[in-house]
């Protein structure tokens, strides 16, 4: 299984970025595809996930209303549209595949850096 994340960068507070994750190597019909992030000196935390089969989405409270996760079944990609970014959103963002909404993620991508300047 390969998960390749892209789209990170530097943006000013209030700006937008779109992350993309290309998934390959297996079928994900019974999986959740999610985004997690890890800020410097902090643990990796859940951001958002989507159930591949149904498209139902889940968000952490800190990003709800600002971030949108979506999937393209034909392309096997999962995107994270991030709007109204804040300096606290600065982190390395990882895409992952797992068995539940927020836990049991056993496949991970390499991470992409998102930096939000104030």
Q: How can the largest sheet be summarized? A: 7 strands, mixed
User: What is the alpha-carbon Rg in Å?
Assistant: 13 Å
Mean pLDDT equals 96
Residue share in β-strands? over 45%
Order of helices and strands: EEEEEEEEEEE
Number of strands: 11
Shape summary: globular
**DSSP helical segment count:** 0
* Low-confidence region ranges: none
Helical residue percent?
under 10%
Structural class: mainly beta
Cα distance spanning the termini: 37 Å
Provide the fold topology:
Elements: E1 2-6, E2 9-12, E3 17-24, E4 32-38, E5 45-51, E6 57-59, E7 67-72, E8 77-82, E9 91-98, E10 105-108, E11 112-117
Parallel strand pairs: 2-11
Antiparallel strand pairs: 1-3, 3-8, 4-5, 4-9, 5-6, 7-8, 9-10, 9-11
Structure, described:
The model has no long low-confidence stretch (mean pLDDT 96). It is built from no helices and eleven strands. It is globular, with a radius of gyration of 13 Å. With 118 residues, it is mainly β.
């Amino acid at each position: 299984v390969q998960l390749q994340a892209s789209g990170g960068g530097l943006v000013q507070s209030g700006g937008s970025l779109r992350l993309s994750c290309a998934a390959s190597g297996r079928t994900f019909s019974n999986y959740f595809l999610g985004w997690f992030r890890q800020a410097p000196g902090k643990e990796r935390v859940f951001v958002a996930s989507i159930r591949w089969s149904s498209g139902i989405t889940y968000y952490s409270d800190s990003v709800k209303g600002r971030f949108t996760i979506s999937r393209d079944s034909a392309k096997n990609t999962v995107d994270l549209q991030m709007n109204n970014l804040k300096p606290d959103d600065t982190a390395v963002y990882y895409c992952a595949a797992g068995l539940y909404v927020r836990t049991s993620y056993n496949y991970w991508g390499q991470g992409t850096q998102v930096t939000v300047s104030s």
